[in-house]
Amino acid sequence: MTQFDTVIRGGTVVTASDTFVADIGITNGVIAAVGLSLDGAKVIDAAGKLVLPGGIDSHCHVEQLEGDGSVHEETFGTAARSAFAGGTTTLIPFAPQFKGQPIAAHASDYRARAARSPIDYALHQIITDPTEDVLHGELPVEISGGVRSLKMFLTYDPFHVTDGEYLRVLAAAKRLGATVCVHCENYDAIGWRSAALLKAGRTEPASHAVSRPKVVEREATYRAIALAELVDQPIHIFHVSCAEVAEEIARAQARGVKVTGETCPQYLVLTAAEMARPGREGAKFMCSPSPRDAGDAAGLWAAIRAGTLDIISSDHCGYSFDGPNGKAINGEDADFTRIPNGVPGLAARMAITFSEGVVKGNITLNQFVALTATNPAKRFGLYGRKGSIAPGFDADLVIWDAERAVTLTNATMQHAIDYTPYEGLNVTGWPVMTMARGAVVMQDGVVTAAEGQGRFLPAKLSDDAKPRGVVPGDFDAALV
Ligand code: DUC
Ligand code: ZN
Ligand code: ZN
């Protein structure tokens, strides 16, 4: 009988399509067999537990350089610790580009930071200044090197791009075989409302939600999709906050446009009301788009069940509450427009999705795996190696206790940040062991991950990211 390096014995294996009891045989960090009565040099008993593909967090900000020269406080080292603690084994963070600078200005610095990663990672490339050199010189090299997703911001200083710049990047992505991820909010609408709020003396964190209501996100989502349709370039809409925005995606999908969408735990369990907490406390919940209202989560779950939204990412953002590069970087009295946006969520993502989704009957177990691992792997060109449990896939596995009741605290997050917006949230379901390429990297909350152990994952062009071959008037302006 074949002797595997490790066998995970008797767990309930869950993939995006199936649930069954089996053993998993691992050799050289890769799943070699899924079967019965497998024999291994090391045997891990998983009876009574679920065995899931390691989570893939396809939207998280790690050790990212900001326009003001500060760097996110979450390093690749601490992000890996938090990710492994929560059952995630692959991250896709963002390499920056700033206006007036080539991609190369920060590429080697970011690659050097990432090279210290204990966790496997792919990369998105932020594009803020799509010059001719970027589009025709740098992007072809980036994309052929495996960075196949470009992030565009339709709002945010200093990142936001005009519609013309967005169109040029869509066209380049089409020519070169990349996907485009879009932050959809209307820059001018937010600026206009924010100025009015400040003039009215409404400087507190709660004004963040008022400055950017749903329609601001909805308009930009419609525009992002319409321009992508014009180019025939598939796009992915990041962090959808409510059903009204998902509706724009669904309408486009119904007419055949290749657009996908994700949401994040903050839109499933937080509301704008949290930002009205006394003093600066509200800043802990400030992210963009804003968390919405109590009824909005139900609409998001409906959009997930309909397949309109098929990924749940964390949009983890490492801004501490009190640290020098965090929420108080512009002073403790900064008005709401000067407080960095973003919430940490690497370790919480899988547990909140399981608890709010599977335990509360919003999704099935298989949908949970699809949303947290399989669909991100497929969408971002990692499938075949990551995102499922089958021979040939990396042995990135999570042994999950579906019954374990946990109250989320900052300590359970194991990140570098000094707070969690989910403090006190009760969840059912928690990882008891995480394996990355066959090595145990977390057991009962104890993470053992070595610097530099993570590998860069060059992404392939996924089917979802391939144009469909339909351009208005049969004229393909992207190819001229
Ligand atoms: N929104 C983003 O788009 N990125 C970082 C964090 C946030 O809130
Ligand atoms: Zn964004
Ligand atoms: Zn983000």
UniProtKB/TrEMBL annotation:
The keyword Cell inner membrane does not apply. It comes from Acidisoma silvae. This is Dihydropyrimidinase. The keyword Hydrolase applies. Its EC number is 3.5.2.2. One of its GO terms (cellular component) is cytosol. Its cofactor is Zn(2+). PANTHER family: COLLAPSIN RESPONSE MEDIATOR PROTEIN, HYDRANTOINASE/DIHYDROPYRIMIDINASE FAMILY MEMBER. One of its GO terms (molecular function) is metal ion binding. Keywords: Hydrolase, Metal-binding. Gene3D superfamilies: Metal-dependent hydrolases (3.20.20.140), Urease, subunit C, domain 1 (2.30.40.10). It is an enzyme of class 3 (hydrolase). Residues 50-441 form the Amidohydrolase-related domain. Belongs to the metallo-dependent hydrolases superfamily. Hydantoinase/dihydropyrimidinase family. The lineage of its organism: Bacteria, Pseudomonadati, Pseudomonadota, Alphaproteobacteria, Acetobacterales. Coiled coil: none annotated. The modification N6-carboxylysine is found at K151. Carbamylation allows a single lysine to coordinate two divalent metal cations.
